[in-house]
Amino acid sequence: MDSARDLIHNDLLETLCEKIGFDSVYSRGIVGVGEEELREILKSDENFIFNIQYKANFQKGFWEVEYLARDMVIIPPDMTVGK
After folding, report:
1. Percent of the chain beyond pLDDT 70?
2. Please, are residues 79 and 66 in contact by the beta-carbon 8 Å criterion?
3. Cβ contact 57:4 at 8 Å
4. 29 within a domain of the structure (yes/no)
5. How far is CA 82 from the centre of its chain?
6. Does 62 fall in a domain?
7. Which end of the chain is more exposed for a tag (fewer CB within 10 A), N or C?
8. How far apart (Å, rounded) are the C-alpha atoms in residues 42 and 10?
9. Range of the domain at 8
10. 60 inside domain
């Protein structure tokens, strides 16, 4: 399960992060960030992911991924499902 999570993490975050509008990812959360650094992060206009949850949906055979972010995700037209 950890190897699947690592593959999802690498594929989604490293490949798509910049494309969908994120500047940084704090995959372990912002809890470990020092107070001064946290103040600087929050002062900036930077959009970042600060919490990631992975859950295996065994009934459907998929992984569910939940990202908590500072701002909206920008989905480029080439990444949307066509009708």
Report:
1. 84
2. no
3. no
4. yes
5. 24
6. yes
7. C
8. 25
9. 2-71
10. yes
Place of tokens 């959009």: 47
Q: Cα dist. 74→6, 56, 64 in Å?
A: 24, 25, 19
The tally of domains found in the chain comes to: 1
Residue 54 and residue 77 in contact, taking contact as beta carbons nearer than 8 Å: no
DSSP H helical ranges for 1-83? 2-9, 16, 35-43
* Joined tokens for residue 3: 């190897």
Q: Which of 75, 70, 33 is nearest to 49 (CA)?
A: 70
pTM of the full structure: 0.58
| pLDDT one-digit tens code per residue, 12-43 | 777 777 777 777 776 666 666 778 887 887 78
Report the chain's mean pLDDT, rounded to a whole number: 77
